[in-house]
Structures are given as structure tokens and as C-alpha cells.
Design goal:
208 residues; mainly alpha; two-stranded antiparallel ribbon; 2 strands
Length: 208
Amino acid sequence: MRRQVRNILPFTAGGRVLRFPGRSRATEAATGAKRHASPEEDELYRALGRIAANWSLIEIASGVVLMGLVGSRDEVLARAVVAGQRVENVWETIEALLAAYGDDAAEELGTFRRWRRSANGYRRRRNEAIHSAWSLTSGGGPAAWDVMSQKAKRGARADLFPGGVDELEELARDIAAAEDRLTELRGRVLALMERQERLRRAAVPDAP
């Protein structure tokens, strides 16, 4: 006798779990009918996609900054360096390398530490958005099945992002602004490395 497959996430009054593109393949196969996503679902998918895409730029930019600190401007190499790594580990390495330059990099180190504190907040919120399952409330707003915490057992939570799609869009913009600031810091890191190279050459006139 075939065992019944149980849903991993329950279906409660809080609304069904959304699956891109907003329909169940099993239901389509059984009924032959296709259900198109609602405008509210489309807005939610777009907001989540922007968060994911903008965070990818943060990860790439972090690798570029790290490679600049070791004397490379190769963005392909930077992507290879960060592939599979937790971005927090990349940030830890960047901070350690900047600290190693002492007073010469004090300003850059302070700027990076401030940036990292804010970026950590965006990282946490990004993880909550991307790693949650989503449903819609009776009013059409998004509710998250926060599978990253014990609160997931309580069902879908409209209070995780109480501002709904607008709050998710704001998070995507904040992440984009953070990436801009990190890219600006990369320019300062490159200038720091050029200063260090000039000092090295001045100390050793015959250096290659």
C-alpha cells in the first residue's frame, strides 16, 4: 500500500504556501487546469528576486575587495575565491588584512568595520526573506513561514516583514546601497595598496 506523502509545511488559516509560479504541479496534473499567479504574488516574487540579486553583488564585491588586498584586480578570480565560502568568512579575512597594515590602513579599517556592522543586519534580513517560505494573508499581504527559527512552528508570520512587499523592496534598495559603499571602499583599498607598493619601492630602490 502506497504511503501518503505529508506536506512539510502545514496548511492553516494563514494561507497556502506559495510555489513559483504560484501553482502546484500535482494539482495541474490532476485537474488539467493552470492557475496563474496573482498580482500580489508577482510583486512578492519580484521583491525577493531583487533581494537575492543584489546580495549576490555584495558577495562578488566582497571577493573583489579581498583580492585587491592581496594584489589582484581580477574579478573572475574574486568570484572563484568567494565561491562556496560564507561571506562572513570573507569579511573576517578582509578585516584581518586591513588590521595588519596598522596605522596606514586605520581609516579604511574603521570604514570597513562600520560597513560590516550594517551589512550584517542586511544579511540577517536577507536570509529571513530568502530562506522563508511564503503565503498570502487574507488581506493579500505576504506572510513568511520563518523556517530559520523555532517560530516556524507557529505557522506563517505576517510580522516578520510587517511592511509587506514595500519593506522587502526597501531591503533590496538598502542592499544595493551597501554594495555601492563597498565598491567605493574597494577604490580606497586599491589606493592603499598602491601607497604600500611605493613605500616598498622607496625602501628598496633596486626592487623590481
